[in-house]
Amino acid sequence: PGSPTHFYFSTSMGKLDGREIAAQVQKELADDVNQLKEGGITPSLAVIQVGDRTDSSTYIRMKRIAAEKVGIEFKLISFEESVSENELIQKVHEINNDNSIHGLIIQLPLPEHINEPLVTRAVSSEKDVDGFHIENIGALVLRGQNPKFVSCTPKGCLELLLRSNVPIEGKDVVVLGRSNIVGLPVAHLMLQQNATVTICHSRTNNLPEKCQAADILIAAIGRPEFVKGSWIKEGAVVIDVGINSVPDDSRKSGYRLVGDVEYEAASARASLITPVPGGVGPMTVAMLMRNTVDSAQAMKEKSN
To answer: Is 271 in contact with 9 (CB distance < 8 Å)?
Structure first.
């Protein structure tokens, strides 16, 4: 269906290497952070963690390493699982009013006794480096508005495409998934780049045919290897946001990580595809650092 798509890019063997591009971003950020420090400002990122879930602690460690690599000060504020909602919100307001902290993240999920949307909405839109605040989402959706921050995974997807010289304007982009965190914001980012965007989801009819029409396919549904290689248009670009663990007895861990797309089969047809892991993941963390540095720069300009 449709004519083959051909893109011109600088990358090896059709792989969109998120680690390589994230390293470029980190180098640029380190320079920006040094400039800010020369002006007396140290960009600072705070993360609130409730309880000690292993997966949350792993994600936080990745963020800490990335922050320290570029010179961002990293602050972890830990609470017991039993913390009250009021105490948590009080801490959020305290950080909102602390001019030495430029970005604030609430590590999700929160325990069941806490109203998650209430706590995340308490984060100031000016420190919402995750890009989840209703003001930032609203500004992304409305034409002619500039959100202070765009959520990190969608922003990372766009950055991957732009830095790999993938043309977006006028192209057919299919987004699989309509979540507030990835699907909807990435669709709006693609619209801003003048793509023609189709959003597909669990109720979409004729999904393989919809995917086969895509010049750029962005998969974010959280279902291991759901998208088959035969669904990929010859020469298309595939951004696989999914990260799923599947049993694998040959691995010491007993599992391996796969995306939402059948990587090997899709690679045979796609001109470019992100691996899992090592594709979108590193870019998400890099964009979190970018948002934190941007926040510090915005606060500096505001105080001048």
So the answer is: yes
Instruction: Judge whether 215 and 171 are in contact, CB under 8 Å.
Output: yes
Sign of CA dihedral 21, 25, 97, 78: positive
Q: Cα–chain-centroid distance for residue 47? A: 17
- Label the pairing between strands 237-240 and 272-273: parallel
Q: The pTM is what?
A: 0.93
Tens of pLDDT, residues 199-247: 999 999 999 999 999 999 999 999 999 999 999 999 999 999 999 999 9
| Catalytic center residues | 63, 107, 130
Residues 210, 245: contact at Cβ < 8 Å? Answer: no
What is the structure's pLDDT at 302? 87
pLDDT of residue 135: 95
| Distance separating alpha carbons of residues 13 and 164, to the nearest angstrom | 13
Point out the residues of the chain with pLDDT beneath 70: 1-13
